[in-house]
Amino acid sequence: MYYPGPMYPSPFNQNRHIIEVTGEGTVSAAPDKSTIVLGAVTEDVSLSKAQAENAKILSNIIDALVKLTIPKEHIQTVTYRIDIRFDYEEGKQILKGYQVTHLLQVTIDKIELTGLVVDTAVSQGANSISNIQFISAHPETHYNHALTLAIKNAENKAFTIAKTLGVTLIHNPLQIQEESHAPEPIPYQTGVYVKSAATPIEPGELKISAALKAKYSYF
Q1: What tens digit of pLDDT does each residue of 62-107 get?
Q2: In the CATH scheme, what is the homologous superfamily, with its name and number, of domain 33-135?
Q3: On the CB side of 139, how many CA atoms lie within 13 Å of its CA?
Q4: Which of 91, 174, 181, 217 is the most buried (most CB within 10 A)?
Q5: Predicted TM-score of the model (pTM)
């Protein structure tokens, strides 16, 4: 049974009895945003040629994405790297050329455009697609709902324990300690892209969970 009133000993009494429980809550939500890392990797014996080719591809990709209504501020460089390539012949190191890698992170507000963004980038010369992730624009709203469920779950557990023991549970918890964090995005596994007729990319559902520990007193 529960008892919230002041007629019984205060829950802050030093000799109080305590029930400690965990609470968990999970909600499902459809993602409404996605992010993709895409770009080009070019190689040439001449560094300037490798850079020029790479710059041309990236410029074409950006222009094409903007035409898809992707705002420029949603397209940002996350990697720009130049690597020297070597071959080894008879124990000797021989310069093979240079590899230039330029990757962009693209944030897509219209999740249904995700596959089209991939295909459009590839049609403009992108040969690296990775880290496709699906997220919620307002994850805190779903997380707070999960947290509410976790609190109710902890309360039900404490009540069940108290009822089994034949004691009276004081409704207001002495302490609640949050143990979980905001939801993580859903990764969509992919790597170097091989062009196909169309790219079906299914976002699935976000599973957003919350967990906590709670302490209740009883008499």
Answers
A1: 999 999 999 999 999 999 999 999 988 888 888 899 999 999 999 9
A2: Protein of unknown function (DUF541), domain 2 (3.30.70.2970)
A3: 17
A4: 217
A5: 0.69
